[in-house]
Amino acid sequence: MIEALHQLADYYLQECQYEQALHFAWRQVELDPWQESAHRQVMKLLAISGQRAMALIQFETCRRVLGKELEIEPDEKTMALYEQILQW
């Protein structure tokens, strides 16, 4: 199910239907809050749709969840996206 939601979010992102894409990305985070790729999708979609501050908040949420539950930091891909969003 998570993979299907991820693919749907990617599809709607490619179609520039950000609201629909966000719906599927958020659903992934709801179902599996430790799925870092889902957090990245949400961050990217928020940033692209003009919600940069919300994208940065989502990064902090991801960081907090990973740290609290798994005692790990976000991976390189997530950090790179965070840095990219900071530059926007």
Walk me through what this model shows.
The chain is mostly helical. 81% of the residues lie in helices and 0% in strands. The chain is globular. The mean pLDDT is 97.
Low-confidence stretches: none
Which CATH architecture is right?
Answer: Alpha Horseshoe
Return the CATH topology: Serine Threonine Protein Phosphatase 5, Tetratricopeptide repeat
The SSE order reads: HHHHH
Please tell me the total number of domains.
Answer: 1
| Straight-line distance between termini | 32 Å
Total of helices: 5
Number of DSSP strand runs: 0
Strand content: under 5%
Main β-sheet description: none
Mean pLDDT, all residues: 97
Q: Based on CA inertia axes, which overall geometry fits?
A: globular
How much helicity do the residues have? over 70%
Structural class: mainly alpha
Key traits:
88 residues; mainly alpha; Serine Threonine Protein Phosphatase 5, Tetratricopeptide repeat
Summarize the topology:
Blueprint: H1 2-14, H2 18-31, H3 36-48, H4 52-70, H5 76-87
Helix pairs in contact: 1-2, 1-3, 2-3, 3-4, 3-5, 4-5
Briefly, what is this?
By secondary structure, this protein is mostly helical. Helices cover 81% and strands 0% of the residues.
